[in-house]
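Researcher: Next sequence.
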Amino acid sequence: MTPAELALVARRLEEIFKNFDITLKVGIPNIIAINLPYEISFKDENAMKAFGYRSLTAAGIRLYSDLELVFIDFAKRETSIILKGIPKEDINK
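Model: Next structure:
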């Protein structure tokens, strides 16, 4: 994923998250940190992955490379997950 593509993903996710007081930070290579407000938390990594994939789908994003999401909760604890992308040649099949 190029830096421009990563920035596009982050912008689209920010549009979805803006009403939930969720902020994002982007890092290279392919990292998006998600700062969660006090009211939002996840019980496990499977819930985080589901949230990540659903958020990308809602934003109209189809991954062709892996993306690391780092969830940062209100206590500044970090949990990192990897969302697996679909190879670019398989996306339109």
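Model: The first strand starts at residue 23 and ends at 27. DSSP finds two helices and four strands in the chain.
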